[in-house]
Design a protein that fits this description.
Elements (H helix, E strand, L loop, with lengths): L3 H35 L5 H9 L3 E8 L6 E7 L4 E6 L5 H7 L3 E5 L6 H30 L12 E2 L16 H15 L1 H5 L8 E5 L6 H12 L3 E5 L10 H15 L3 E6 L14 H18 L7 E7 L7 H4 L6 E4 L5 H11 L11 H6 L6 H17 L7 H13 L10 H20 L6 E5 L9 E4 L10 H11 L1 H10 L9 H16 L32 H28 L1 H14 L1 E3 H8 L39
Parallel strand pairs: 1-4, 6-9, 6-10, 7-8, 8-9
Antiparallel strand pairs: 1-2, 2-3, 5-7, 11-12, 11-13
Helix pairs in contact: 1-4, 5-7, 8-9, 11-13, 13-14, 15-16, 15-17, 15-20, 16-18, 16-19, 17-19, 18-19, 19-20
Amino acid sequence: MNEKKPNAWTRSLLIWVGILFALVLFVQMIDGGGRASASDTIPYSDFVRQVDEGNIRAVTMTSAGVGSGAVINGKIAGGKDFRTIAPSDANVSDRLIAKGVAVQVKAEEQSSLLMLMIYNSLPFLLILGVSFFVFRQMQKGSGSGAMGFGKSRARMLNQKDGRVTFADVAGIDEAREELEEIVEYLKDPGKFARLGGKIPKGALLIGSPGTGKTLLARAIAGEAGVPFFTISGSDFVEMFVGVGASRVRDMFAEAKKSAPCIVFIDEIDAVGRHRGAGLGNGNDEREQTLNQLLVEMDGFEANEGIIIIAATNRPDVLDPALLRPGRFDRQVMVPRPDIDGREQILAVHMKKVPLAPDVEPRTIARGTPGFSGADLANLVNEAALLAARRGKRLVAAQEFDDARDKVMMGAERRSMAMTDDEKRMTAFHEAGHALVFAHEPTADPIHKATIIPRGFALGMVQPLPERDSYSYHRDKMHADIAVAFGGRAAEEIVFGHEKVSSGASSDIQQATRLARAMVTKWGMSDALGPLDFSEGEETPTGYFAPQQKRMSGDTIKLIDSEVRRFVEQGLERARSILTEHRDQLDLIANALLELETLTGEEIKTLIAGGKIDRTGPAAPLLPTGGTSIPKSRRPTAIGGAAPAGA
């Protein structure tokens, strides 16, 4: 493959050079000689005068044709060449001989009929050749030229460069096992046919962006050893009705020639949406394309040996006819990885990175709950870039920790101009969160607290869950609400009611959202009972909208009062903890003002009455024990004090 590309490039270059040379030659033939001779042509009257004055010694005369005069070439006495045409009735030769001029006569060169035809048709042939070549190149470059709208844009994947196998896929073991069976069938179909098994028609990969759906498809291509065609769902759809359906037919026709084979359609929701959901020709084109795809996958004429693998992160919008068995027999979920999966994914991406001895993939996996495979790859890359920027030869745990903060919260804003009062209020705000974290038995352990601004936050306290959580408990939710109000309660206690800042805006939003979910969705209000008032959907802001359901005004008021009660209970719970441990609040806040960042172990040391000692080797920011992951996509940074207006 690598040898063909230079040859094709060289061939194209030679063709263009040949066309350019032909154009130059043509222009020279048509216009070049005429221009060159035109500069030396003199009027016949000037020629006669030069002859009479004796300035011409020798000439060459050539007949210009029947009924025409003679073409006379020669040199004037000064050495300048000249050319002129004598009239047909002029007795030129006698006059020249009388003046002693040496006259040489040449017969007219008669061109053959064939050469004359070639000479006259050359411009048209040249224009036709250039047009044909340009038109052909446009068709090749677009993949579907003006005469090839209905041709498939599916490309056969080349496995010679960048071959991916199942060994490169980590963290999604269940999804990989289901697809390994398809690969095994392609390698040995007789093993399944003996028991009456049939090859599945298709597999639909469903998962959030970045979870590795396309990587899985490439791994299937690398493992199966069969032709693998790849295409995007948007490649089928054009503004002209019928083009998409034609491309589907052509794709399956090409796949039949290479069967058994695999066809991978990425982002199939671009063409597989519910039919009848819109109006206009664009929708008609998409529906015709989908209809053709349905027929090709499981219609009157079976396409044996062609397996369709598609990927989407929007299975809810797909047409039901596309999801039924016989078309997509398997719907493979590709979830976000758990802690073990994240550790495996990190190990894969760390192979190309020189690591320091203090880097532990398990520890980093604990601190990255909710990260997808793409997020983890980005984390490793950011850590490597940070190490290079700092002039290090190895990537240490500190780079991974800083890279995670950058990915989650944004870059540090150390240049941000903050007054001493603002820094002090931010320090007590974050200390309040940290102290409530420490004294709530069901709250997650603290990873670190910092007052270094990042993104829109002036500071933050990051938890580090000890284990994977797949469900929430009532006591844990009440503790989370109290933790969210730790910063607001600390500001009230230290600075007074009138000095409370806007830094708790995100905390209030988070606590209100959690309280409303407890009341309307999870049935944790004794006054309302175990009833669902949420309609099962969230508004764009994340709040459940009970007004969408038919409820009485009294019920809506009761929901609002219960949400308010849960929130106020959390605020009072935070006030009680901070009031009881006011001395610890001052210790943590003063340490933050001095050191800017405290680890979870250092906060425990301060609460226990000890002192922070950083004279020895730097302690890793990430603790070494436990496991991780809350249910959310990313770990929540509590107490991200926001600037005014945020």
